[in-house]
Amino acid sequence: MRTVNLYSDQLALDPDFYELLVSSHARFVRDPLADFGSGPNWMYQAAPFAVVAHDAERDPKFVYANMTAQRVFGYSWKEFIALPSRLSARIENREERRYLLDAVSRNGSYVGYEGSRVKKSGEIFSMEDGVIWQLVDDHGHCYGQAAMFSRWTNVHTQNDPPAKQPAA
Question: Which residues cross the membrane (predicted)?
Fold first, then answer.
């Protein structure tokens, strides 16, 4: 696997990033993320579950969101990849989210995550069957973390304002 440029305009369909996603998932979760023969096009455009990834910065930003995640959260690709990932959580849940991500950093993965997230509109949805894992290549370089969830339910409109986009 070559070095992956997380900030490439072509990351959505990048075969090296796809390989990083699925190989890291297999390593840490010990379960395949995609069927053999699936590829980056399937993961981005047709996967029936949401997949997101953020970088390894101190205040990580999303670098990937497949079409299912974009529909669930209500962000376009360009909006998603400019968003600090902490803004996907309700204000009162951000500290808990940080603890969870720290645990994933130490342990490699967390399976069975359930929690609430915030859509662009400010509406809340709950997600179930979530998995979070480290994105680590064959040389041990950590690119960040990824998450997938296969079940979600709209909850209600929250009082928090929609997540603000960073100034351009």
Answer: none
